[in-house]
Design brief:
Layout (H helix, E strand, L loop, with lengths): L21 H29 L4 H9 L6 E10 L2 E11 L14 E11 H6 L5 E15 L2 E2 H5 L8 H9 L2 E14 L2 E6 L3 E8 L2 E4 L2 E8 L2 H11 L9 E9 L2 E4 L8 E12 L3 H10 L5 E3 L5 E6 L2 E11 L2 E10 L4 E8 L9 H7 L2 E8 L4 E3 L1 H17 L6 H17 L14 H26 L4 H19 L1
Parallel strand pairs: 4-6
Antiparallel strand pairs: 1-2, 2-3, 3-4, 4-5, 6-7, 6-8, 8-9, 9-12, 10-11, 11-13, 13-15, 14-16, 15-16, 16-17, 17-18, 18-19, 19-20
Length: 484
Amino acid sequence: MSSQPPVPNPQPTASPSKKTCCCCGRRWPWIVAVIAAVLLLLVIFAPSIASRQPLRSWILKKAFPGVRGTITCSSASFGWFTPIVLEGLAIRGPEVIDAHDEVRPAIAIEKIAGNRPLWELLLNKHSPGDFTIEKPVLDVVVTDSGSNLKNIFAPRAEQTQSQRDALKLLTMGIDISGARFSVSGREIPRGWKTKPIDAALRIKDGLLTLEPVALFNHSELTPAACRDFLRFVAPILADVTTVDGRFSLKLDTWKVPLSDPKQTTGSGLLDIELLEVEPSPLVSGISRLLKLNPHIILIKDSPITFYMKDERIHHIDLTFYLEGVLVRTSGSVGLDETLEMKVEIPVPKHLLGDGPLATALGQQTVVLPVGGTLAHPQIDGKHLGMAIQSLVRGTMKSLGEEDISKAEGFIKGLIDRVAAAKPAAGDKTNEKKTDTESMISDIISGAGSLLEQRRKRREEGQPMLLEQLRKRRQQRLKSGTEKK
């Protein structure tokens, strides 16, 4: 057997070696450096970029999420180391056309400037510092659906707990110069507007504080001004369509809880220089009750003090005349327009006639409660009748024997005068029984009861109280003489 030569072991084939690129390893640091430089430049110039259109409009829209209209700004200055400045800010909503068929902004601000740079604002968003607002203009246009502000701003949603907590931490100041407000509309031939106003606002611990300010100074008194805010301070101006005069309105310090604005508190002073005004529902009710002409005359240099508390605006001593009869009102008007008032009037002299008894009663006053609403006040006429009845009873009981006949004649004359009094001019009531008729009924009932008692005593021969006292005094004097 022949032997075969041994088979040699195969040697592994060597793979070609990969060439390593030295350039790639050297490029990575440069790429990272370039990216970092670009990002750094973006960060540095981000405020400047953001201040340009169209990014500026997008940022403003995000900053005011509740605005449903358009927000424009003619120029803006954002900088990491410089305060924020906005110029030519305007807010427009759905198209509101004025008399010249031009779209006008509801809110226009000439300039807004802060006092802190952007980096401080980002680090401490709860304390943005102080801002100055120059020449803001609020132009309210009344429409069939409400107003342009109602169309621009979305309904205020219920605040969350986190939002309330954030408001408590917010601290900032706002100084306003040259602010102007106006109200107009197609159905309002005479709106109202203010002269330039300077005001200071402070926000701290969840409270917005308005420093004392004069909102109106000898401004024109218009039905729109009466309808929008004056009726809450002076209810006699509610729902008037004809008014002529001027007024001034000054506010003391007011505090507005940002979490519940209805709990606003504050006080102020209203001074009205009234020349002419048509009767309001409240004045018509008072004049109808007293059988007087509803033409009112305000007392000059008699400002009305008012204050707001618990969602109600209280006024003190609103004084005016109705045909020479002095009327004084005090009380409150709720934000829901409900009335909680008192009307103080003297006993109507034109119903009392002449004589000592009438003079004595004419020097006394009665207080009438007023409820209902501004549009439909409810004056308790029966209370007036009961008050006069009480005064008559007290006066008759204090009379001497020789004055009883005068009292009887006075009561009968009072009843006749009240019954014969003519309704006030312009009184168009169709009620079957008016407040004054209820008053007449009460007077007749009370006075008639006293007169009936007097008649029975005369018929029965019962001595009057004064006569009994006189006889007792004579008996004591007689017994004293006998003892001596």
